[in-house]
Write a structure and sequence with these properties.
heterodimer, A: about 170 residues, alpha+beta, Alpha-Beta Plaits, 2 domains, seven-stranded antiparallel β-sheet, 4 helices, B: about 130 residues, alpha/beta, Rossmann fold, five-stranded parallel β-sheet, 5 helices, 5 strands, about 40% helix, globular
Chain lengths: ~170, ~130
């Protein structure tokens, strides 16, 4: 099978995953989580929400170093306390551009499945498909994806070179 | 009819590259894309764009390095460069600031988050 040409693969630093599920009737838990993180200037490189059978699930990722700050933010909001699950040691793998081609999505899922890589979350954006997987498996994820996708000549997966924090 | 100008958009955020590219294409510009400084230098040599929109904070080779190299190269120094800079007041633990931007020979800059309409005005001004 021919490889699909893409523009690049981008990786994240180690992140902390946050999972917040609110069973029906859905209130404001998801939006409160986003609000308190934003108020504390916690960057969220990934966020997605799913509304299924009346329940709302908000998943996001923050810098692993922000775990204590995030813990304090959550504890300070009664609607969140004890309702947010931490998933430690996750990382992001983004493929781009997807050109709105469903084959890119299908073959990426297939590659992750064949390699037995966990998928904690997934989201698409204007240009990229992003998978949340185990940080320890990022190199293996890249190796697996490069069996299916082809980067431009001289291209290599982009790893974060700097870290930006808001003050 | 004048030839459509080629703009190279360089940023390691693929969504920003796509958004800027779509806006440029809607204004009849041709667009080339690159996602880091090394790839951008290759594109500059291969395609010789009429203007480069260049992010500062990128892996492999940052925007200031690429800007410096282009402006020191007689073959490419005439290509206008618009830097995409972060807002210095909101950025810590990095050496990238507006001040660094002013010490480069970039032709113009715009702060992130970018206003696409303003960026298009800057592009047009620098292509005149």
């Amino acid at each position: 099978m021919c490889k699909i040409r893409i523009g690049g693969i981008k990786l994240s630093d180690e992140l902390l995953g946050l999972e917040c599920v609110e069973a029906p009737p859905v209130g404001t838990r998801g939006s409160v989580l986003c609000r308190v993180l934003a108020a504390s200037k916690v960057n969220m490189p990934f966020v997605s929400s799913t509304y299924d059978a009346g329940a709302l699930r908000v998943s996001c990722c923050v810098d692993a170093e922000d775990e204590n700050l995030v813990g304090r933010c959550i504890a300070s909001e009664p609607v969140l306390a004890g309702k947010v699950t931490f998933v430690r040691g996750v990382g992001l793998v983004s493929l781009f551009p997807h050109h709105f081609n469903m084959e890119v999505l299908g073959r990426a899922f297939s590659a992750f499945g064949r390699a037995g890589l966990p998928i904690h979350g997934m989201a698409s954006s204007l240009s990229a498909l992003t998978f949340v997987t185990a940080y320890a498996d990022l190199d293996r994820a890249v190796e697996t994806l490069l069996g299916t996708f082809e980067l431009p000549e001289g291209g290599c997966p982009l790893k974060p070179a700097i870290k930006v924090k808001q003050i | 009819m004048s030839e459509r100008k080629l703009v190279l958009v360089v940023d390691d955020d693929p969504d920003l590259v796509e958004a800027v590219s779509m806006k440029l294409e809607s204004l009849a510009f041709r667009v080339a894309k690159a996602y880091d400084g090394v790839e951008a230098w290759d594109r500059v040599k291969e395609e010789r764009p009429d203007l480069v929109i260049l992010d500062v904070m990128m892996p492999r080779k940052n925007g200031y390095e690429l800007c410096d190299e282009m402006k020191k190269d007689p073959e490419y120094k005439s290509i206008p460069i618009v830097l995409l800079t972060a807002v210095a007041d909101a950025v810590t633990s990095t050496s990238y600031t507006h001040w660094d931007g002013k010490t480069t020979l970039a032709d113009d800059f715009i702060s992130k988050p970018i206003d696409l309409d303003k960026l298009m005005e800057i592009v047009k001004e620098n292509l005149e």
